[in-house]
Amino acid sequence: MEVDVISIKRYKRSYFALKEAEQEPNDEKGGMDYEIIQPGQNEPAHIKALESAPVLIKEGGGASQYAYSEFMDAELENEHTRKSYRHAIDRFLRHAKMQGVSLQTISPAMVGKYIRELRTTRGKEASKATRKVHLAAIRQLFDRLVMRHAVVLNPAASVKGPKLVSEGKTPAVSTEQARAVLNSIDTSNPVGLRDRAIIAVLIYTAARAGAVAKLKRKDLYSDGTQHLLRFDEKGGKVRDIPVRHDLEEYLREYLEASGVGQDQEDSGLFRTAYRKTKRLTDRQITGQDVLRMVKRRFKDAGLPERMLTAHTYRTTTITNLLEQGVPLEDVQYLAGHADPRTTRLYDRRGRKVTRNIVERISI
Q: Which of 65, 109, 232, 315 could pair with 172 in a Cys bridge, judged by C-beta atoms 3.0 to 4.6 Å apart?
């Protein structure tokens, strides 16, 4: 079957509507002057994205194209989720095309078999977590296709994903190891002061690396009694976390040495470094920048950076508070979890098999 190019053109025409020109009414025409917005250089990204949409979406007609664009570019707000879901959906629809089916004839059996036999791009068996993500992406897209009457039923609705009982895999570090990382940083330059401040924020707020990277100058503020950091977390959550005294000192030293404290409030709080000059640029760091920096600082402190990540600090802080007897609901609020069971996944108290246990086996 050939791709329905005409449907794409109709979809574009439905998007590029008439725009009212900023002119006075034209008496001769008896109304306002209008101009047509032509597809071209200013064509929106979601219109251009349709050109690279899976073949089955194009073949499905205007309704499927609209649903695909709506789901990918309007419904999914988180950039990482959108990228992950697009990869999962496009890969499944390519598989379905190779099986010679259309969107309307994809069956639950086909989806179930695909999820069970899913492999990574390197040919290895996909993990349970990966299979659950792929199934969730396929299911949600077909929900949207059903809503827009592109298909009658959702073939993924009745498919059961793999049962995943997670106890949390991110390792924690000890209090001494966390302090050793902070103490190992050379703070004689702005980059070192920046790195110490970032790691201290990760430790003393339990924030995620992505939320730390998104901090603006205005997100560090005082309410008259104390300083706070305002985090824009995943899921649209906004959390205000008090800044403890030593973290406040780390931030103050960084802001003074880097000059960031004199910048506009909408500028990034933490900046990238210019190669190996120990100088900072005007560009705000990203979550990936934070992850790489944390790995490098773990290595400098003599810790196994291959196993440890920025999320290690979140796990370490939650475990440390629970060890001190802080109520679970208080730790849950600090971590920004909606469900206390999620917070428990970060608890590493007594989760390790110690040498003492195995030595006591009386065989």
A: 315
